[in-house]
Design a protein that fits this description.
The protein has 157 residues and is mainly beta. It has one helix at 32-37; strands at residues 2-9, 14-19, 39-42, 45-49, 55-62, 76-84, 88-93, 102-105, 109-118, 133-140, 147-150.
């Protein structure tokens, strides 16, 4: 297993994972549906929504097969596909300088991406502090439509 532990600036409450060579930016992909599921997917790129607009901890794991179900320990879980034609994945905040993005080498192909969201309800009143954290797990698998495996409770108004 390959893994990375990152602290990403989730400007606009999002960060992304993408094939290094993709040209798709998904700039218009945040709709009520994608916002509710906290994930927007395009060709070679997935944008992950976050609970706050600050630095957030992100764990990335490249696996050989689908991981065991540990959904009880997470607030929200979504799966999507990520095509990685170049064999290099970049992970960064949406306003980060792309050449400085974290990268991880993988075999070219299609990967399943499972995003697990934790401690989403721990934000301070001003929304700047919290223990929210995000885990990205990828493994080789056929392409799928985006699916929510566990829906977070609706935020209180």
């Amino acid at each position: 297993m390959k893994s990375l532990e990152l602290s990403l600036f989730a400007d606009y409450s999002q960060f992304y994972i993408q094939d290094e060579s993709t040209a798709d930016e998904l700039s218009a992909e945040w709709t009520p549906e994608t916002t509710d599921r906290m994930l927007a997917a395009g060709s070679g790129i997935v944008r992950i929504g976050t609970a706050r607009n600050m630095h957030v901890p992100v764990s990335v794991q490249i696996l050989e097969r689908e991981p065991d179900d540990d959904s009880a320990g997470w607030d929200h879980i979504v799966e999507a596909s990520l095509d990685v034609a170049s064999g290099r994945i970049a992970i960064a905040g949406c306003t980060d300088y792309f050449p400085d993005a974290a990268r991880i080498d993988v075999a070219p192909g299609t990967y399943r991406l499972r995003v697990s969201y934790g401690a989403l309800d721990t934000l301070s009143e001003d929304g700047l502090e919290g223990d929210d954290h995000y885990r990205l797990q990828l493994w080789p698998a056929p392409s799928i439509a985006v699916r929510v495996l566990k829906q977070r409770p609706a935020p209180a108004d």
